[in-house]
């Protein structure tokens, strides 16, 4: 046979080779993600105050979580934050990206840096900056609103405004990421498609719907998946602004998890919350990638 | 259960080392080292007395190796300077002893300490946060050395007001808070009260209120004249605990309040005084005594607004005195919550995180001596020179009239004389901070009635009492 020995050995070589390249990151992943995750799963089966000997309690912590109204309330707040963390930044990122790309604006790298900057800022810093922006006594936001005759608002301290405020801060922090991803995606769409659309007499809007959006399918999947993860794991901005208040109107699962695991020494229960949010995140990410991913290409 | 034989060996070994060191310690530093050599509180063992007594030479060599590792929250600034100055002075007075100080941010200390002690890599001395946050679990896990013996030796219980000492106490089984053995000694004290702007008081013809009623009149007068009566910022949630606690302090008594916080005598939060104080807080809110949008104001911004003259009074703790003095100079004053009638007010406040001795230390006696040095006259002097409030009464010579710190010291001395230090109410249960802050925000927003508020607190409290009894 033509391929007998050499072919088979080559095939073996190429089968093992990829794993060799994966090895370094696999080691790092196992050490810093795999093992800690397993650790959290083990901890979630224990009743442990962090000091005395832990007790095995099986699924009791999970049962407790599912009957804990504060957990459900916190999870609901995560759900409410999804539009702010996923939809809004996607739209806010796509619009300027499309404009910059379409008009071939000069200095687009300045936009890129400017828009992206908030995304790489630590969340706590963003929280502190916005706490100042939204300060009811001397914050610039209220000062600007005052110019058009609006009375100063207590953004982060108001039961109705606090969650939307936190959501808007999150949208501000993430839309730059979407902008950069979309801009890169746009540059990849073949120019011929636009030319063909124009020859067919498509308007700008039709061009956007028929060429741009489908061309960005992969980018949209990435943006939605990453932002969804952000919406579920949000913590730092809330920690630096409202600490879950007023009342519990901005409490989210990760905040509640941290309070349990570290502030009140309920390590097992905190781990349960961590495991639940991890499973939810994984599930939603898989669904997103299945719906929007490039697998159908 | 069979006796755990293997563990005796290291215990005996450490005891021998310990005895060697103690005996030499007595030779070089005199009787102040105290304690009989055999009196290791942690591990009495009959085999130890059978050991030959060490020779002086080997003893002094061993003493050179005494290293005490101290972990606390003094990471920077004045606090770090104070502890390290005291450490150097202690080393000078006790040749051969070396103090290694490491400061951690509060949260980090809590987490690191817990893991380090349980894995046997902990310090000799550490700041152990009061109550169920650290001290209770550590006592129950038998990881701390009781200080009752050293208290007798150094006379701490005569030095500190009983109400201050109680919050560093737990029964030996770690089940009851606020009585039993002493597990830590606090270097500093904390008192919450009213800072006021002297110029604004003068301009509006107002005197420092002597009674609760006068305080309410003062706030009404200021409100009527268009001045913000009281600044406080509740965005970061904890300031409402202080405000509510101060109001409750004028309506309660020690037996009830101590019972609530130390969980003794099956007290309930669903009582008339809890509701009465809640109603008063809502009344002040409705009357507009607080700065506008206080709910959205961070505590850091709140005191800066006060320093900038945006309101007449600020409810805050003694820890801010230095900053306020710097920002406002002689224009700032301080007064503690005035009483209703002749009832003693139980003021919101507490002690700095107490220093305790970790069970794994080889030198408990030296550690106790160092802790005693942390509350010595010299330490008090250093604290006061650096604007810190010591856990004991302030000597007259440090009280400068017409300064905000002078006002604070006078108030602090009075609180100590009257044994009138109340509590941070969030100590009641591990989840109480969360419960109390959330429901105070609901109460202040009139989304909850005083009755619902009291019931919510009681629900958290009784749930924890039940868990504790299990």
Model description:
- The complex is a heterodimer of chains A (297) and B (470).
- With 297 residues, chain A is mainly alpha-helical.
- Chain A has two domains: 1-43; 60-296, Orthogonal Bundle (MetI-like fold), CATH 1.10.3720.
- Helix content of chain A is 75%, strand content 1%.
- Chain A has helices spanning 4-43, 60-66, 69-103, 108-120, 123-133, 140-147, 162-188, 191-199, 204-215, 217-233, 236-241, 253-263, 267-292; strands at 46-47, 55-56.
- Chain A has a two-stranded antiparallel ribbon with strand order 1-2.
- In chain A, a hairpin with a 7-residue loop joins strand 1 and strand 2.
- In chain A, helix 2 packs across helix 13.
- The longest helix of chain A is centred in the N-terminal third of the chain and has 40 residues, at 4-43.
- Chain A is globular and about 75 Å long.
- Chain B has 470 residues and is of the alpha/beta class.
- Chain B folds into two domains: 23-188 and 352-385, D-Maltodextrin-Binding Protein, domain 2 (3-Layer(aba) Sandwich), CATH 3.40.190; 190-351 and 404-469, D-Maltodextrin-Binding Protein, domain 2 (3-Layer(aba) Sandwich), CATH 3.40.190.10.
- Chain B contains 20 helices and eleven strands.
- Chain B has helices at 8-29, 56-63, 77-93, 106-118, 135-140, 148-154, 156-159, 162-166, 198-203, 212-224, 239-249, 254-262, 272-286, 299-307, 321-328, 364-374, 377-385, 404-417, 432-444, 450-469; strands at 66-72, 97-103, 125-127, 169-170, 181-182, 189-197, 230-231, 313-317, 332-335, 349-351, 355-357.
- In chain B, strands 6, 7, 8, 9 and 10 form a five-stranded mixed beta sheet that branches. A four-stranded mixed beta sheet of chain B has the order 2-1-3-11, with helices on both faces.
- In chain B, helix 11 packs across helix 13.
- Chain B is globular, with a radius of gyration of 24 Å.
- Chain B starts with 7 loop residues before the first helix and ends with a helix.
- Mean pLDDT of chain B is 85; it is low at 1-62.
- Chain A binds chain B through residues 49-52, 131, 134-138, 152-159, 241-248, 259, 262-266, and chain B through 107, 110-111, 114-115, 118, 132-133, 137-138, 140-141, 143, 234-237, 291-298, 301, 305, 310, 430-431, 433-434, 437-439, 441-442, 445, 447.
């Amino acid at each position: 046979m033509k391929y007998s020995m050499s072919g088979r050995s080559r095939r073996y070589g190429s089968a093992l080779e990829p794993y060799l390249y994966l090895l370094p990151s696999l080691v790092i992943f196992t050490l810093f993600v795999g093992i800690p995750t397993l650790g959290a799963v083990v901890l979630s089966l224990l009743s442990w105050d962090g000091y005395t000997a832990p007790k095995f309690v099986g699924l009791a912590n999970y049962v407790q979580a599912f009957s804990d109204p504060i957990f459900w309330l916190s999870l609901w707040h995560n759900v409410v934050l999804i539009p702010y963390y996923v939809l809004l930044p996607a739209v806010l990122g796509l619009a300027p990206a499309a404009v910059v790309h379409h008009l071939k604006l000069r200095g687009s790298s300045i936009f890129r840096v400017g828009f992206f900057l908030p995304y790489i800022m630590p969340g706590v810093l963003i929280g502190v900056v916005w706490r100042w922006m939204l300060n009811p006594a001397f914050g610039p936001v209220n000062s600007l609103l005052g110019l058009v005759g609006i009375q100063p608002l207590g953004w982060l301290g108001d039961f109705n405004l606090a969650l939307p405020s936190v959501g808007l801060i999150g949208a501000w922090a993430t839309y730059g990421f979407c902008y950069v991803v979309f801009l890169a995606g746009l540059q990849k769409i073949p120019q011929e498609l636009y030319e063909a659309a124009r020859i067919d007499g498509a308007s700008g809007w039709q061009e956007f719907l028929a060429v741009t959006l489908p061309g960005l399918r992969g980018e949209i999947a990435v943006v939605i998946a990453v932002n969804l993860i952000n919406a579920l794991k949000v913590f730092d901005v809330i920690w630096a602004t409202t600490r879950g208040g007023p009342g519990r109107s901005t409490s989210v699962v990760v905040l509640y998890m941290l309070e349990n695991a570290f502030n009140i020494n309920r390590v097992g229960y905190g781990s349960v919350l961590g495991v639940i949010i991890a499973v939810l995140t994984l599930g939603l990410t898989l669904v997103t990638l299945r719906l929007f991913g490039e697998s159908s290409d | 259960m069979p006796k755990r034989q293997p563990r005796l060996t290291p215990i005996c070994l450490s005891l021998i080392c310990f005895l060697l060191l103690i005996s030499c310690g007595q030779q070089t530093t005199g009787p102040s080292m105290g304690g009989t050599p055999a009196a290791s509180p942690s591990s009495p063992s009959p085999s130890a007395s059978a050991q030959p007594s060490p020779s002086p030479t080997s003893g002094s060599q061993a003493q050179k190796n005494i290293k005490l590792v101290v972990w606390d929250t003094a990471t920077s600034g004045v606090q770090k300077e104070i502890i390290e100055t005291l450490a150097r002075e202690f080393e000078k007075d006790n040749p051969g002893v070396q103090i290694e100080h490491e400061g951690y941010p509060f949260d980090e200390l809590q987490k690191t300490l817990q893991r380090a002690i349980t894995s046997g890599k902990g310090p000799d001395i550490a700041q152990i946060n009061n109550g169920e946050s650290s001290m209770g679990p550590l006592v129950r896990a038998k990881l701390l050395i009781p200080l009752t013996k050293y208290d007798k030796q150094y006379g701490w219980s005569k030095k500190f007001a009983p109400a201050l000492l109680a919050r560093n106490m737990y029964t030996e089984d770690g089940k009851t808070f606020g009585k039993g053995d002493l597990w830590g000694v606090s270097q500093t004290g904390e008192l919450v009260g009213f800072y006021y702007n002297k110029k604004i008081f003068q301009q509006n013809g107002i005197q420092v209120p002597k009674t609760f009623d006068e305080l309410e009149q003062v706030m009404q007068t200021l409100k009527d004249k268009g001045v913000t009566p009281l600044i406080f910022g509740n965005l970061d949630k904890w300031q409402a605990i202080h405000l509510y606690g101060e109001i409750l302090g004028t309506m309660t008594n020690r037996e009830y309040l101590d019972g609530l916080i130390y969980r003794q005598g099956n007290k309930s939060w669903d009582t008339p005084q809890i509701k009465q104080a809640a109603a008063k807080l809502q009344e002040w809110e409705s009357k507009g005594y607080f700065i506008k949008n206080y709910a959205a104001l961070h505590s850091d911004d709140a005191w800066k607004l006060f320093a900038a003259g945006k309101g007449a009074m600020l409810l805050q703790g003694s820890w801010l005195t230095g900053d306020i003095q710097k920002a406002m100079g002689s224009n700032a004053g301080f007064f503690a919550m005035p009483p209703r009638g002749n009832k003693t007010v139980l003021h919101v406040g507490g002690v700095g995180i107490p220093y305790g001795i970790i069970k794994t230390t080889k030198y408990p006696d030296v550690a106790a001596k160092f802790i005693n040095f942390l509350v010595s006259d010299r330490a008090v002097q250093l604290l006061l020179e650096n604007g810190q409030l010591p856990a004991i009464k302030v000597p007259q010579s440090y009280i400068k009239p017409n300064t905000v710190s002078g006002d604070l010291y006078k108030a602090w001395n009075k609180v100590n004389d009257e044994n009138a230090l109340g509590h941070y109410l969030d100590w009641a249960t591990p989840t109480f901070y969360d419960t109390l802050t959330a429901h105070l925000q609901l109460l202040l927003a009139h989304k909850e009635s005083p009755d619902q508020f009291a019931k919510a607190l009681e629900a958290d409290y009784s749930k924890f009492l039940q868990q504790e009894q299990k």
